[in-house]
Amino acid sequence: MECRRLTYFLAVAEELHFGRAATRLDMAQPPLSRQIASLEEDLGVKLFDRSRSQIRLTQAGLVLQDHTRQILERLDSAFRDTRSVGSGGGGTYQNRLRRIRVSWRAANANTILPLTLSGS
Amino acid sequence: MECRRLTYFLAVAEELHFGRAATRLDMAQPPLSRQIASLEEDLGVKLFDRSRSQIRLTQAGLVLQDHTRQILERLDSAFRDTRSVGSGGGGTYQNRLRRIRVSWRAANANTILPLTLSGS
DNA sequence: TAAAAATACTCCATAGGTATTTTAT
DNA sequence: ATAAAATACCTATGGAGTATTTTTA
Which nucleotide lies closest to A34 by the C1' atom and the CA atom? Predict the structure, then answer.
């Protein structure tokens, strides 16, 4: 799996419009459509309902959107943390780890549970 | 960022040997070395200490390894969950969401905090 | 009929393989 | 001297662009 595809998927899921999503991603619409189709094929699942004029996320699409947001956030903090340790941002090793834990908590504050929509 | 690189990185971090990691990944050693070098370049940080006969993770490498494990696990459950919803695994929508939450909790049971090594 | 997504095709970037060199013990 | 990683070089897979067709409202 390539993370680029997740970025593409998230853009389409938010715009609900391939053309606008492509513009936002600074790419053309056809390759974006193909990547989403390829992702759907890999998963064996439709992520968007294209039968109407307005595109909609399927249930599977909603689940993936939820996971994807958190994965991409996590990826982002992974890089920030790795860079900040690597460039020896000052202080002791213990303090650097402490700062990293703090930033990790901040990045994941809203990551307690996905799919809070159900009331079971 | 490409997730493939994270898989590569994790294999090397676990084997601490480019040759064995490449075998495990079913690829040749040179492209693996290049991908790791390219990852280090992107991050602006050395992930491995190659100055000794036995390769070692740098501090930055340890941080990235920690994040990477969890990101890849998360990616895995994202796909499982998306597939299981998509293929309409039986039961009501609410019950399917409930099962997904349960599997999510299981996959993330050890994901409370990274870097628990420090005692601050 | 108009707006948007899908397809056809072409091209290029980059990932991967093989052969070889460098390095370190 | 040997084992392992790095480099050089080549090939090929697949990602992206343009032009066009299909679809649906």
Answer: C6
